[in-house]
Every structure is written in structure tokens, then in C-alpha cells.
């Protein structure tokens, strides 16, 4: 790295991130972002504790529940995260997060007004669009406010909101639903039942929280090479058009006949795959959403290669980045599936009372996730000091260590053993997140952080969230056993490990040649 480049990188960071001492305001920003992330996951995960009641009232199957808890949210979260991540690289991140928080909170409240499978699905899609603003903006802000050697720790602290919010959502959802149904056995105002009241109760406060977020200071960023001269919002709509047919075909045609043929061929392959899977499972929404999601990502990546070749090269053209993202994506597949299905499993299979399991699993999720992500972040930073690929070891731990707790916890008939094993599985899986997030941030230039975050979350959502909850539900429907559905998660561990071994070997060279490869691509 040259002295000129060093100066440019330093100029890209606020003074707070250059000094060893981290000022109090940086920690205040981090605290605020953690609170936002807690709300993010309350709104996202509250569906889990309400699943049995929703299934009963709307007449759903486990596969349909898995779609609501996974792909209905995940596909739109992932796809809008791409242009929103790019927008976070150029526009006011505080303003973007404020708008997103207000939107996803309003759509969570709208979930409480749903009367059928379709309207609830549409509301969950809206939640996904709004929440797509959260992590690209937060990751980028944290990367500006904290120096590189503390970045995994800071990102791990931020990520603790995932587990705190997920745990609190069980407690809040169960309590509100129970109190409401006890007070209004036949339905309250407008015929609303307990699960609907719970959605409204957690959605409305988020709109007020958006006013707090709007007061944060946006750190100054130096102009970056390779940026468009157009207004950032115009670029956002251009980026969005790269994902949405028929605009995807227009972009492909502009790149030439070969690109158009490749785009149409990939679209045809996705349609064919969806038809086959719909025939096997009978679940049209799940596989239609998945086919649309993967086609959209292919179209965006192909267009990005032409419009911003340096960013494409450092993300999509870097095996270390792709293998890290996909390897962790399979960790998240198991984590999301367990978070969604553990409460219904405990209620249906183990016959545990909803109030008890909400309290214990909620506390389990909050404590195990918080401890795991913080300790994992700190350990991954320490491993990184000794070994350029050290953080990958922590991700490997996150996929291998939960196997025994999952097997024991979901084969026992003891509620106590189930709770303990659920705690351990959550603790071990959570340890991987800070390491994976920091690794992907380290593999790109500062101006690409929002886009890198969006790309990272494509794996955690289109691989993890979109597939995990649905896979368990579908296998449960096919076998008639929710236990078998959950245990099927263990099968993803060898695939994840193989990807992470590849990332471990490729990472040192990839990190050492970041600027060289960016210049060559540009």
C-alpha cells in the first residue's frame, strides 16, 4: 500500500476512527444502533411465538408458516438491501435509516391488521423492504466510527441486538397475546385477536424511535473515486431497476446480445427449477419467491460488473469473500431455523406451556446470543492479530459446535435438557457473526462497505433466512415429524465447513491485494 493510498484511506475515516482512543459519541451511536437492531429483530421474530395461534386462525401448514417466517421477508429484505446498500455508500445514512425504521415499523403494525395468508404475506414483505436499510447503514456508520482493529468487537456489539431483540420478541409476543385473548375472548376492537394485537403493540413504538435516530450525526466522508456524478437517489432507482424484470432485460440488452441471452437463460433455469420444486412440495409462494430472488441477484451482479467493475471484482470476483459469505450463510440457516421453530416445537412436541417457554427461550436467546456474539467478536479480533485468516476459525466453530446440542436438544423428552441444549446451540452459533461481518468488511475499500454489507446479507437471507425456516417446515409436513425437520439442519454443516476451508486458504492473498485488484478492474 502506498503512502498516497494510506492518506486517502485515512481521509475516508472520521478522526474518531483514526485515533486509538474511541470517543464517547462513537459509543453513543453504537448504543443507538443496537436499540434499533433490537427493534428490528423484535419485529422480525415475533412471528415465531405467535406461529401456533396464526396457524390455527388462518388454517396454515408448517410449510406456509416457514414461508412467512423466511422467504416472504427474506427475499425482499435481501433484494432491496442491494440498492439500499449502494445508497448507503453515497447518501446520508442517518436519513436512510430513519426512513427505513419508520417503514418497517408501520408494516409490522399492518401485520396486525392481516385477515388471511395473502395479506399477512404482503405485510411481511413490506417489513423486509424497510429492514433492508438497517444493517448496510449501521455497518457503514460503525466502520467509520471505529478503527479497524476494534471493528469486529463493535460489529459484534451491534449484532447483539439480533439476539436481544429475538429473545425479547418471544416474551412480548406471548404476554401481549395472552393478556389480550384473556381480556377479549371473542376478539377485541375490530375483532382483533391476541396475535394481531401483539404485532400492533411492537410496530407502533418503532415509528417514534425513528425520531431519535434522526438526531444522530452523519460523519463526513471524503469524495471517493469511481462514484457516479448523478444524485444518489437517482442511482438508487437505477440500481433497483437492475433487480426487477422487465428492466433486467433492458440492462442486459444494453450490454450486448451475449449478456441478454445469458440473462434469459438464467431466468429460464430459475423458472424450471421453481416449477420442479413446486411440483414436489406444492408450495408456490416459496419457490416463486426464491426463483425471483436468485434471478434478481444474478441480474444485479451482471450489471454491477459493467457499472462498477472494481466493486464487482472485490466482492463477486473474490473467492474469499464469496466463501465467507456462503459459509456463514449456512450457519445463519441453522440459527434462523432454530430461532423460528424452537417455540412451536416446544409447544407442540414437548407440550410446554406458552408462557413458560416464551420466558425461558426468550431469555435463552437473548443471553446466549449476546454472550456468544460478544465473546466471538473479541476472540476473532484476537485470532486476527495472530493469523490473517484467524477470524475464519471462529466461523468454523459456529457451524460445528452447535451440532451436538441440536441433536441432544431435539431428541430429548425433557424440557430442562431441551432448554439447556437450545442455550448452548445459540451461544455457539452466535460466536460466528462478528467474525464473518468483519471479514467481509476487511476485503473491500471503504467506499464499498455498504455494498459489501448488502452482498453479505444476500447470503444470510437468501441462503439462511429464506431457506432455513421453510426447510424445517416443509420436511415436517413431508415426514409428519417436526423433530425430523429440525434435525435435518445438521446436514448443512459439511457444506459450510468446505466453503470456510476454502476461504481460510484464500483470504490472506485477497486482503493483501485489495487495491491492486480494484485498480486492475477499474
Task: Briefly summarize what is shown.
This protein is mainly α. The chain has helices at residues 3-12, 15-18, 24-58, 62-69, 71-90, 93-111, 117-131, 134-145, 151-183, 194-213, 232-241, 247-254, 257-281, 284-307, 309-315, 319-348, 354-386, 390-400, 403-409, 415-430, 433-442, 449-465, 468-479, 482-487, 493-512, 514-521. Helix 9 packs antiparallel against helix 17 and helix 12 (247-254) packs parallel to helix 14 (284-307).
Structure write-up:
It contains 26 helices and no strands. It is an all-alpha fold and 522 residues long. α5 (71-90) runs antiparallel to α22. The longest helix has 35 residues, at 24-58. The two termini are 17 Å apart. The relative contact order is 0.15.
Mean pLDDT across the residues is: 88
Tally of DSSP helical segments? 26
Low-confidence stretches: 1-19
Helix-strand sequence: HHHHHHHHHHHHHHHHHHHHHHHHHH
Number of DSSP strands?
0
Helicity, as a percent range? over 70%
Oligomer: single chain
What structural class is derived from the secondary structure elements? mainly alpha
- Percentage of residues in DSSP E strands: under 5%
Q: What would the principal axes of the Cα set say about the shape?
A: globular
Taking the sheet with the most strands, its summary is: none
Taking all Cα atoms into account, the compactness measure Rg is 22 Å
- The end-to-end distance, rounded to whole angstroms, is 17 Å
Amino acid at each position: 500500500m502506498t503512502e498516497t493510498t494510506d492518506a486517502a484511506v485515512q481521509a475516508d475515516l472520521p478522526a474518531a476512527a483514526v485515533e486509538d482512543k474511541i470517543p464517547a459519541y462513537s459509543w453513543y451511536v453504537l448504543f443507538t444502533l443496537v436499540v434499533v437492531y433490537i427493534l428490528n429483530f423484535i419485529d422480525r421474530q415475533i412471528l415465531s411465538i405467535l406461529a401456533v395461534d396464526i396457524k390455527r386462525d388462518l388454517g396454515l401448514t408448517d410449510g406456509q408458516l416457514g414461508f412467512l417466517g423466511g422467504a416472504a421477508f427474506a427475499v425482499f429484505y435481501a433484494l432491496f438491501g442491494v440498492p439500499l446498500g449502494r445508497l448507503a455508500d453515497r447518501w446520508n445514512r442517518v436519513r436512510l435509516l430513519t426512513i427505513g425504521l419508520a417503514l418497517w415499523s408501520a408494516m409490522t403494525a399492518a401485520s396486525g391488521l392481516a385477515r388471511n395468508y395473502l395479506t399477512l404475506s404482503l405485510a411481511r414483505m413490506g417489513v423486509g423492504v424497510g429492514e433492508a436499510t438497517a444493517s448496510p447503514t449501521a455497518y457503514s456508520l460503525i466502520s467509520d466510527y471505529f478503527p479497524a482493529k476494534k471493528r469486529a468487537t463493535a460489529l459484534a456489539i451491534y449484532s447483539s441486538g439480533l439476539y436481544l431483540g429475538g429473545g425479547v420478541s418471544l416474551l412480548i409476543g406471548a404476554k401481549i397475546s395472552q393478556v389480550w385473548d384473556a381480556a377479549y375472548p371473542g376478539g377485541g376492537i375490530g375483532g382483533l385477536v391476541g396475535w394481531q394485537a401483539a404485532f400492533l403493540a411492537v410496530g407502533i413504538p418503532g415509528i417514534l424511535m425513528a425520531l431519535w435516530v434522526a438526531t444522530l450525526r452523519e460523519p463526513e466522508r471524503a469524495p471517493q473515486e469511481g462514484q457516479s456524478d448523478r444524485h444518489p437517489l437517482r442511482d438508487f432507482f437505477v440500481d433497483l431497476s437492475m433487480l426487477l424484470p422487465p428492466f433486467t432485460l433492458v440492462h442486459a440488452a444494453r450490454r450486448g446480445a451475449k449478456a441478454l441471452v445469458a440473462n434469459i437463460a438464467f431466468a429460464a433455469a430459475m423458472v424450471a427449477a421453481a416449477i420442479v420444486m413446486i411440483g414436489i412440495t406444492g408450495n408456490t409462494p416459496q419457490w416463486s419467491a426464491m426463483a425471483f430472488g436468485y434471478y434478481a441477484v444474478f441480474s444485479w451482479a451482471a450489471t454491477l460488473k459493467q457499472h462498477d467493475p472494481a466493486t464487482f471484482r472485490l466482492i463477486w470476483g473474490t473467492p474469499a469473500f464469496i466463501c465467507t459469505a456462503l459459509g456463514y450463510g449456512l450457519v445463519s440457516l441453522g440459527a434462523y431455523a432454530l430461532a423460528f421453530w424452537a417455540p412451536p416445537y416446544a409447544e407442540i412436541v414437548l407440550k410446554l406451556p406458552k408462557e413458560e417457554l416464551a420466558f425461558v427461550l426468550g431469555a435463552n436467546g437473548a443471553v446466549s446470543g449476546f454472550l456468544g456474539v460478544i465473546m466471538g467478536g473479541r476472540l476473532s479480533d484476537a485470532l486476527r492479530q495472530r493469523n490473517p485468516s484467524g477470524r475464519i476459525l471462529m466461523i468454523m466453530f459456529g457451524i460445528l459446535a452447535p451440532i451436538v446440542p441440536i441433536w441432544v436438544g431435539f431428541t430429548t423428552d425433557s424440557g430442562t435438557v431441551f432448554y439447556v441444549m437450545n442455550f448452548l446451540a445459540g451461544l455457539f452459533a452466535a460466536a460466528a457473526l462478528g467474525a464473518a461481518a468483519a471479514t467481509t468488511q476487511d476485503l473491500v475499500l471503504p467506499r464499498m462497505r455498504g455494498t459489501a454489507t448488502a452482498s453479505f446479507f444476500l447470503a444470510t437471507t437468501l441462503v439462511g433466512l429464506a431457506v432455513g425456516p421453510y426447510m424445517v417446515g416443509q420436511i415436517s409436513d413431508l415426514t409428519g415429524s417436526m423433530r425430523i425437520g429440525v434435525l435435518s439442519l445438521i446436514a448443512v454443516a459439511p457444506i459450510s465447513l468446505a466453503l470456510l476451508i476454502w476461504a481460510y486458504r484464500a483470504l490472506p492473498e485477497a486482503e493483501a491485494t485489495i487495491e491492486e485488484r480494484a485498480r486492475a478492474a477499474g
